[in-house]
Amino acid sequence: MAVSRWRGLGVLAALALVAVLAVPGQAQVGKDRAGTITTGSAHSAALGESIAYNVYLPHGYDRGAGRYPVLYLLHGRGDTMQAWTQVKDTLDRLIQDKRIPGLIAVMPDAPWSGGGSWYVDSRYTGTDAPGRPVETALTRDLVNHVDSAYRTAPIRDARMVGGYSMGGYGALRFTLAHPDLFGSALVLSPAVYTPLPPADSSAREYGAFGLGDQKFADEVYRELNYPDLLPGMDPELPVRLFVAVGDDEYANPDPADARHDLDFESEALYNTVRRAPGVSAEMRILDGGHDWSVWGPAFEQGMANLGPMLSVVPPTGLPAPLYGTAGTDWAGGVAAHADGSVTLGLAAGGPVNGRPYAGKLDAVLIRRNPDGTPRWTRQLGTAADERLYGVAALPDGGVLAAGYTRGDLDGRHPGNTTDDAFVVRLDASGEVRWLTQFGAAGAADRAYGLTATADGGGYLVGYTKGALAGTNSGDKDAFLARIGADGQLGWTRQLGGAGEDKAYGVAADATGVFVAGSATAGLPGAPALGGLDGWIAGYGTDGTSRWVSAAGGDGDDRLGAVTVTTDGLAVATGESGGDLLAVAYTSAGRQKWSRTVATPAPDAGAGVVALPGGAVEVIGYTRGRIGVAAGGADVLAVRLSGTGRQQAAAQFGTARDDGVDPFAEPNLYATPTPAGDVLVTGLTYGTPGGGTAPGNGDVFLATVDPTG
């Protein structure tokens, strides 16, 4: 399979193109496809003795040369390493069904100080059974041994830890205290108590949380427990947790300890960790008690949830540098020029490259030389907000940019307090040639999309709450406007139904103009499908309405970007029911094909670029796994043929959200370069490898070679 090359500022990074994992039905695993369990032993310098363990090796391990992720499984108090062997059939089936990758599972024995001593380093020094450094032994000595004895990938993305009861406490602690080692954890019926264990808990008996000759010290327990670990979590090392518990857990008869029932404590754990920076969590409550009637099905559900994220290949990060300020910043578009330079657009919450800052958000345009050095910066703003939603290159080396302002940006709208659309033309040296601000008086108007025309003008799309071109049909109407090379509005068209209608994307060729957007109650010529609908419309170059078509299903759908392919098709992208959607229409409005790209998590398209031969590159985001997941929402690139067939897919990003804003809407743009690459810019809340982040949301710029 081909490899797509992502790069930024001359830094190349390869991404294997990985198909979405299939999830077929649960078939029985034949003996010829089953894994094996054998025993092993690892010397522990911390303990001064060996750690015994069972190890599950997947089918084909002995005949291959590849590396595998590792799952560490911790047993509960009173059990041994044999307890986890009963999940072998589940692992065989999950791997055969391709619901999880092939993996190694290590099941250590923990016989020390009452069966594991809660998997922590005990400070108890009593002569009856002095504490042991169990946590150090397992997280350092055992992990190092496994990485040297088996074909593992010694990276956090390839390690998961799981446990039940006391082992659930251990799995949670190992992940939160050692996020550099473990990227995820199965936390089943965890024996975690806050702020302290109940009076009858065995956590108080064996010295796990002891100090000196005390078998239990309140301060030690608090220090080692999850509430004290969460504030120190590094969002750049995010962890994923799957918490599960039975609904028939032991009910403590002492009213003072009733809140320590493990179903209550598990819910408290989940509702605490899911609010912590750098932690994402899922919670399941199953029918059953504190036994394998819960742990068996919970293990399978947890592995199906977390297992697909295991990867022996490190994720590909964002290129440095990021653009922005210490304030709030948003991506606003990108344009590639014939001389190899690039114009980047953003909305900035402070001064950029020493330019004057007007207040709140300013519209900023940065021209970069082919070698990445800055050529010029132009910052436009008022005391109110300005946002950019599109940048387009002009034949003379200049650039158009569009968005909205809530102030008097052009000097001809004194006292303005509502959103107005604006479009600005800069010449190749960054000087403003003209700036046009327009909108219905007293109503909100925003430009959300832009494409340039050969004469130096362009087409703008967005929405109006007023009457730009006729009577308003509802809450908001979409608009399409033609702007001339002199900055004058040539004509404006308004399209709306009874609900809220917006236009986000626009593309044009010599035959017509194509607009994509969303509607809540249907449009004339495009009846409502249910929920929020995506739509695409065709116009003549003179603004004559030709056709409108709804796209999607009975859930929430949206089309946010559109391009015209070399075959003359209008291809739009967005989302449908939580999946990335791409649709293609002829110039006459007939749908040629429709394609969805789906993971179990949210996915959406945000930009689409025409490639040679009728193909397109769709840029969007995913919270799932299509390539190698980096964390949070990742940027997604999908190459589709001229007939809509998926040819390749890859993802990249940081440990935090990339390409999506706090309102779960894409903040991404893509454009072709003269060299045949695709420029991608978007919002990130993370930090690039080897770089820094100004903070509070910044803007990245990367390049993909779709033919690589």
From TrEMBL:
Superkingdom of the organism of origin: Bacteria
GO MF annotation list: acyltransferase activity, transferring groups other than amino-acyl groups
Any Pfam family: Esterase
Protein name as catalogued: Enterochelin esterase
Organism: Streptosporangium canum
Lineage: Bacteria, Bacillati, Actinomycetota, Actinomycetes, Streptosporangiales
